[in-house]
Specification:
This is HECT-type E3 ubiquitin transferase. The chain has two domains: about 1-50, no CATH class; about 55-140, Hect, E3 ligase catalytic fold, CATH 3.30.2410.10. The protein contains seven helices and four strands. The chain has helices at about 1-15, 20-30, 35, 40-50, 55-65, 75-85, 90-100, and strands at about 65, 115, 130, 135-140. The chain has a four-stranded mixed sheet with strand order 1-2-4-3, with helices on one face.
Length: about 140
């Protein structure tokens, strides 16, 4: 029985996926040659591929830029007060809303910058916050 289970597990986890995995690896290495990956430590490679998953949210606030707002405007102060009270998971959901991902890939949080803009609409009470994920802009009505 043990031999059967061992053979079955080997088939399911190794043999049955061997060809698709080899095809994937061949294509992956064509676009990303292995010699390029050797310059990274395993931890650095994980950050490059998966992104940063832990954040200093106060550093994020420090790095934000404003357009048609000033840092001390009431809307901005309210935004950050509410943001910092959110649980970690909700903060990551905000990051996904802003950037399309709940992670920051390929670079450190110190380099991550986004902008908060006033959309300058006639009646801000009728407009919801929105984001331009390509340019990392949060449109925050007053």
């Amino acid at each position: 029985r043990k031999e059967y289970v061992d053979l079955y597990v080997n088939y399911m986890f190794n043999k049955s996926v061997q060809k698709p995995f080899e095809d994937f690896m061949k294509g992956f290495l064509r676009g990303c040659p292995a010699r390029n990956w050797k310059m990274f430590s395993p931890e650095e490679l994980q950050v490059v591929l998966q992104g940063v998953t832990t954040f200093d949210w106060h550093l994020l606030e420090k790095n934000v830029m404003y357009r048609w707002y000033k840092k001390l405007d009431q809307t901005i102060r309210n935004f950050w007060r509410v943001f910092h009270k959110l649980p970690e998971e909700k903060k990551k959901m905000f990051l996904a809303f802003l950037s399309g991902s709940d992670r920051i890939t390929g670079y450190a949080l110190e380099s991550f910058r986004f902008r908060i803009e006033d959309p300058q609409v006639e009646n801000p009470d009728e407009v919801c916050p929105s984001a331009n994920t390509c340019y990392l802009i949060l449109f925050l009505p007053r």
